[in-house]
Amino acid sequence: MQSREWIPGVYQIQDSMGVMMTLVAGHKQALLIDTGYGLEDVRAAIQKLTDRPVQVLLTHGHHDHALGARWFSMVWLAANESSVFQKYTSEPWRRRVMRQAEQKGLQVPEDFLTAPMAEPRFLRDTSIDLGGFHAEILMCPGHTPGSCVIRIPEADLLITGDDWNPCTWLWFPEALPVQQYRKNLEQVFALPFRHVLCSHAAGLFSREDMRQFLDGITDVQIQSAGMTDEGNEMGIRTATIFLEHGYRLVFDADKAKGDK
Question: Which residues contact 47 (CB under 8 A, 6 or more apart)?
Answer without folding.
Answer: none
